[in-house]
Write a structure and sequence with these properties.
The protein is of the alpha/beta class. 34% of the residues lie in helices and 24% in strands. Helix 9 crosses helix 13. Bound molecules: cytidine-5'-triphosphate.
Amino acid sequence: MLHNKKILLGITGGIAAYKCAHLVRLFVKKGAEVKVVMTPSATQFVTPETLSVLSKNPVVSEFFEKPTHEWNNHVHLAEWADLFLIAPATANTLAKFTTGVCDNIVTACYLSARSKVFIAPAMDLDMYQHPTTKANLKTLEGFGNKIIPAESGELASGLTGEGRMAEPENIISYIEKYLAGSSPFSQKKVLINAGPTYEAIDPVRFIGNRSSGKTGVALADEFCDQGAEVTLILGPSVFKPKNSSVKIISVESAEEMFKVCTEVFETSDIAVLSAAVADYSPKEKSASKIKKSEGEMNIELTKTKDILASLGKAKKKQILIGFALETENAIEHAKEKLKNKNLDLIIANTTSEKNPAFGSDFNTICIIDKHNNLLNFEFKSKAEIAKDIVEAIKNYAEKK
Ligand code: CTP
């Protein structure tokens, strides 16, 4: 859920600030990009240098950089973030947030934030119980912020009770749960197939194609980043998803791809078939290496099963999306495939010597839905194309 998320972490001056080194590390491990802003007093509890090394980004604790006097633009920082987390949030900072006081970079980012704001308070027992603090937290919650409750335990004062900042692992899981709940694909099971298939001639030779699997892998990452439970059925490809939550099932032949796709499809909500499945496979597969002999050699080929068409027939409530790779009359052919294979959407793309869809990092696509609506996209990277496709599927699902 946190993979590729841009997180702005605001640290204020409490002893729990030392735990932020671990918190940043956990975010980075999850694949998030982290930028840190700190109040001047927070720098007394954990150094900006430590957080800069761990986040791999500069840390900002003043409105103006020393000695250049360059302005640290809090508006840009706040706009950059997908979510803003303030941890630890002291009683003083809570009071400032409540009344709109803007006297440091953290409070300035808070007032500029357009993203969801998460607040993890930390203070001593009596301060946390104080009606003023309770009222401030209620007000902040009323403003739409998410409060990550303080935990109980030993406090810096020596007292024991509620007031400790939630443990970094608990903060992460709180945010992950929130993101999962607010994602349009949460609870959705998505099947993606990708890559080429290899059709064995003998133990060392095969018939394959030039598909890299890049688009399908990018789609798996994008769906997963948006909260879906993704199963990627992957033919022989050197590319793998970045997001470790994607479940990968490796297959080699069209027949294996067919079997796994058919099984996974039954429990899927959405299926996107981007694999370049071989249309033909050698009729006989030699168990031993075929020796060369005089004269020509002929290999008899037999037709493979059309996985997409078969899923189109089996389709119940699933949203089924296919690809059409064409060299000419792309839209016309894609529309035929959309109808014949009983699809919801089809992604048409062309391949030529000048603009090879296979192997390249870029492509141009057109998405057609079953009501014949066309969406044309410009030439862009396959990662950006994956975002466009997921967005189109989201819009289609909402209208369905
Ligand atoms: N496809 C499939 N099983 C096959 C062949 C294709 O599931 N045996 C799927 C592909 O994954 C793609 C769609 O069908 O989503 C269209 O593939 P494409 O190669 O463009 O077309 P074909 O249907 O194979 O027809 P042709 O090769 O004649 O264009």
